[in-house]
Amino acid sequence: MPQGTPPGPQPEPIRFFGTTWVDHDGGYGLRRVGVAVGSLATAVGACFVLRFAFEGLEIAKVGSLVGMLVIVMFAICSAIAFRKTWEGFGARPKDPAREDTLRGLKSIGFIGSLLAYFFRSFIEAPGEKLRRAEYESARAQFEKRRATRTGNPATRKRPKRR
User: What's the whole-model pTM score?
Assistant: First the structure.
């Protein structure tokens, strides 16, 4: 008899991990290693691209002030993107509208987001702690509602047949 979806809340999938984070199965460890290696390799590649862009500014002879402003802008945006991405692994944003306004800033500082993924993948699947707390809370509420419901046919004891 094929089993369907179990009743109650279902775990929310995480990017690159799906729902393997629930029981740490399905190649969970390899996925964490893959996310760490992939995010670090992408961050290094992005640094090379930014280096080529900076060399283009030097070839254009735009001046040292513009070059310094570009470096400072990428450093600040990367720091903000790292912080916001790291905070997003532990809690849902309190003000989604503010997060939308920071989307452009986080896009410019994408290297910071990649580094946040790299460092977080040493601890857990990025966002696992938040999703696990939400999932366990939802399961506990579901079980409580199910157990306290009067006349729940699923919890009734079946009479023994002779």
Answer: 0.80
